[in-house]
Amino acid sequence: MSAVHVHIGQCGNQLSLPLWRNYSKCRSNHGQEQVFFSLDGWQRSVHIDSEPKVLKSLPQSMKVRETNLIKGKRGRGTNFGLGYNGTRFQNDNHILDDGCEAVRREIERCDLYSGAIVYHSLSGGTGSGLGAHFIESLKENFPCHNIISCAVAACASGESPLQSYNALLSLQWLQSYADAVIILPNDYYIKHLNHILLSENDDAIKNSQISFKDVNSVIANNLCGVFAPTDTLSTSRGISLGQEPWELIRTLTPMPSTKFINLTQHMSKKLTWEALASKTVQYNSKNKNHAIPMKTISALTVARGDKENIFMTAVKSSLDKKIRKGVNFIDWNTFPLDCWTSKTNVIGAPESRSLTLAINSTNVLDYFQTVLSNSSAKLNAGAYIHWYFRNGITQDIFDESTETLHQLISDYESIGSG
Fold first, then answer.
1. pTM of the model
2. 234/251 Cα distance (integer angstroms)
3. Mean of the pLDDT values across residues 239-263?
4. Distance CA 308, CA 95 (A)
5. Strand pairing partners for 354?
6. What are φ and ψ of residue 118, in 5° steps?
7. With pLDDT > 90 as the criterion, what percentage of the chain qualifies?
8. Residue 384 predicted with pLDDT over 50
């Protein structure tokens, strides 16, 4: 069940570097050779950006077809409207069509196409605007196949004055056209990196000492934690069918209106599965909304490096209760927790173990409320809005996006108060 991976914008393509280093390790595992690669050895990936700089810097070690590198000549000015509708220069508006054609060709090379995984930013013009338009086009052209959005959220302190507008608009498109959205907040992973570094070093390490390259590596590890092949979903002969992304949707999104997922991960060479689970659940609980008690619709744990096949035994004896207590499941879901295992760990150091926790919970409310608050304040003041009007984004579109986010917050709040 093959997937096509689409990297859009500067963020999506920079994330592809550590991500495909991890995916490439799967090729050395028997039965996993063709999960991420075609029969001829090329990656099942398409890389799209509105300017050529980042795509030109991709290393030759990445086996990307030249026809799958789609680049324009002008950036999108951190503006959703410019990313979605394109520029005034006709010779630079081929990116969407060329990208869709590259994906179509890649789909035809798949033995059994199941869907696309799109990596992009919620704050950049290309990542948010072109990313939203591309996901819309994918759903219209291939309506029976799944789309997972891996959306990187900018730091709340601000990387651009337009990021709240871009995120507001992008979230509406994702709610309409994606089947699942994995929210990847930079703030959360920077905090996570600081937590790890401080636990290993007595000297205080400030956020400024952590680069976006470090953050991208952590995000890539988290994504690989849920997308890489597992023994649980492989055949009895150890052949991976590449079902992990689509089983993720089935497990974590029982309702189409609430389909936003967070990832937490811990790795260690020394800790037991019980200790890893405690750390993962404990750190995840620190990311909760303080106004509403944390409630979780569903969760997935993926244990990698389980060479002794003892993780499921630990789940039955103690981990199941520990995880259930830590994430606070809702009452109506009678099967809220799924567990996968793999003997190999492609995302960590040799002999290490990793535990990845994917949850659909009220944790996302913090981010939604931040976006709504910041964008509403700017809209009420009329700040920067003319830049969007001149690029095809009307007041009606802003109103619809605001209403969509209000409804999304209401849906998750009803879960937390239920």
1. 0.94
2. 17
3. 94
4. 48
5. 267, 304
6. -110, 125
7. 72
8. yes
Q: List 182's β-bridge partners, or say none.
A: 150, 261
Tokens of 87: 């520029």
Rg, the chain, Cα only: 21
Task: Please give the single-letter amino acid code of residue 217.
Answer: S
Task: Show the tokens assigned to 170.
Answer: 């992008």
Strands 260-268, 296-304: pairing is unpaired
- Tokens representing 20 are 């495909």
Mapping DSSP onto H, E and C, the string for 237-264 reads CCCECCCHHHHHHHHHCCECCECEEEEE
Q: At what angle do helices 365-381 and 395-417 cross, to 10 degrees?
A: 150
Which among 314, 326, 382 has a CA at the least distance from the CA of 357? 326
